[in-house]
Design goal:
It is a single chain. Helices cover 61% and strands 0% of the residues. With 70 residues, it is mainly α. The model has no long low-confidence stretch (mean pLDDT 92).
Length: 70
């Protein structure tokens, strides 16, 4: 459902579907075969690998520090 971090994690029609209600969710069931597990795995590796998480954390801390200094 379209709450919390779902919109940040799901790539619509590629790694999943974002639903607004139960009726919409049930309509997406027939489309689940269109989601390729390899696409999901690759997206997770790209965004949540140790290297990616370390880089993004470092960038966020650097930006926060620079904002405070300036």
């Amino acid at each position: 459902f379209d709450i919390g971090s779902v919109p940040e994690i799901i790539i619509p029609n590629k790694t999943g579907y974002i639903c607004k209600n139960v009726e919409q969710a049930t309509s997406y069931i027939s489309l689940l075969d269109n989601i390729r597990p390899n696409d999901c795995r690759q997206d997770a590796k790209n965004r949540f690998s140790i290297e990616s998480m370390a880089h993004n954390s470092f960038a966020a801390y650097t930006a926060a520090i620079m904002k405070k200094i300036v």
